[in-house]
Amino acid sequence: MTRTVTALFRDFYLSTCEASVTAILDDGGIEFDQTCFYAASGGQPGDTGFLEREDGSRILIADTRHGATKDIIVHIPADGQPTPSVGEKLVLHIDWPRRYRLMRMHTACHLLSVVCPFPITGASVGEEESRVDFDMSETIDKDQVTAALMKLVEENHPVYVQWITDEELADNPGIVKSKNVRPPMGLGRVSLVCIGENSSVDSQPCGGTHVSETQEVGAIHIAKIEKKGKENRRFRIRFGAPENRTSV
Ligand SMILES: [Zn+2]
Fold it and tell me: Which of 81-85, 169-173, 207-211 has the lowest mean pLDDT?
């Protein structure tokens, strides 16, 4: 099976790269020798974009998914697109404005897990809205959460990835501050997403894409906190300042 080397994990800001087709799957999915596209994982949707052929024509990509294993990245063309041939060289272009919004939102979800240090039971990163479900029974005021989030954004903490081996993680369980996420061990190494100098704000295992400074997240707010059962709270994060509310 083809193994895609992901250029992505070296640089989240890489929006284009050259690559050669290594396989065309029965369902039309395309694999390359390298890619800057992110495959849907951990609540973050896969990248969309297009492939530029030598003659300048385009093949639109509607989604990106993992193959049988996490090291395989399959680019799913939109309906009715031409199929490239194996060995063909193309330039891959991510829909960057969309991806950047997802990076900002994904980073916002990390900040929310700092502000609300409860076990996460589910998360979904979206372009307009993200949701994070927490296992918690406490009632929290959404405006207070928004204020705490914006404080972390404005403090402009660095966000970076630290690779550690499975052994290092096993020897130093304290390296992972967040107890919410089980580290994806078994691949030999784990990527920790660290926020703040020396992970002063947070560090947790995550394979998604993030901005490099919290200020890039921009204005966000908690639009809603829903009660989903006795011990579950669903937080909805949206871009922008809180909407004006009429006084109660
Ligand atoms: Zn993440």
Answer: 169-173
Residue 90 has pLDDT above 70, yes or no: yes
How close is the Cα of 110 to the center of ligand 1, in Å? 6
What local confidence, expressed as pLDDT, does residue 143 receive? 96
In tens, the pLDDT along 129-148 reads 999 999 998 889 999 999 99
Question: Residue 107 C-alpha to ligand 1 middle, in angstroms?
Answer: 6
Give 53 Cα–ligand 1 centroid separation in angstroms: 32
Note the pTM of the prediction, 2 decimals.
Answer: 0.90
* Dihedrals phi, psi of 190, to nearest 5 degrees: -130, 135
Please tell me the distance from the alpha carbon of residue 130 to that of residue 222, in angstroms, as a whole number: 10
β-bridge pairing 30-32 and 16-24: antiparallel
**CA dihedral sign, ordered 131, 12, 163, 200:** negative
